[in-house]
Amino acid sequence: MSRILIVDDQQEIREMLLEILSYIEEIETKAISDPMQALPAMKQESFDLVITDLNMPRMTGIELSKEIRKTDKKMPIFLFTGDTTSQTKEMAEQAGIDEVIHKPVKIDQMISLIKRYLIA
Questions:
Q1: Sign, CA torsion 85/83/62/106
Q2: What pLDDT score was predicted for residue 113?
Q3: Which of 8, 19, 21, 25 is the most exposed, having the fewest neighbouring CB atoms within 10 Å of its CB?
Q4: Which pLDDT value is given to residue 91?
Q5: pTM
Q6: Which conformational region is residue 85 in: left (phi greater than 0), alpha (psi within -120 to 50 degrees), or beta?
Q7: Which of 55, 23, 12 is nearest to 4 (CA)?
Q8: What is the CA radius of gyration of the chain?
Q9: Residue 84 has what pLDDT?
Q10: Could you tell me how far CA 41 lies from the centroid of its own chain?
Q11: Buried b (16+ CB within 10 A) or exposed e, 68-85
């Protein structure tokens, strides 16, 4: 069983992602609204993939990804954003983010990406 951590300050987005991910039987999910709580949660629990929003209060998804990379070089990280600029893609690459997923996302696209990283 694989575990995914969702980090997004908007409740509607967390709920939408949880619903999309509920279609994949082989995973469990946890959603956190505050990116400052994500790192402690990752130390207390085991996760196999992180999906984070770009723009959040107190810490961006880019900053969160850089912090994750300090202790875990292999954790797949997806940045979920409405920003489609090339600057965002560059920053994501520099932060070690594996996939940039643009809002709105199609359910089959998200499921396919998750399965590519987690389900052999």
A1: negative
A2: 94
A3: 25
A4: 94
A5: 0.95
A6: beta
A7: 23
A8: 13
A9: 81
A10: 14
A11: beeeeeebbbbbbbeeee
| Joined tokens for residue 106 | 């199609």
Look-up of token digits 């600057």 = 87
pLDDT in tens, 48-88: 999 999 999 999 999 999 999 999 999 999 999 988 888 88
- Other beta carbons within 10 angstroms of residue 116's beta carbon come to 12
Domain ranges of the chain: 6-118
Fold of domain 6-118:
Rossmann fold (3.40.50)
3-class DSSP string for the chain:
CEEEEEECCCHHHHHHHHHHHCCCCCEEEEEECCHHHHHHHHHHCCCCEEEEECCCCCCCHHHHHHHHHHHCCCCCEEEEECCCCHHHHHHHHHCCCCEEEECCCCHHHHHHHHHHHHCC
| Contact yes or no for 14/31 (Cβ under 8 A) | yes
pLDDT digit string, tens, across residues 3-44: 999 999 999 999 999 999 998 988 999 999 999 999 999 999
Closest Cα partner for 38 from 25, 18, 56?
56
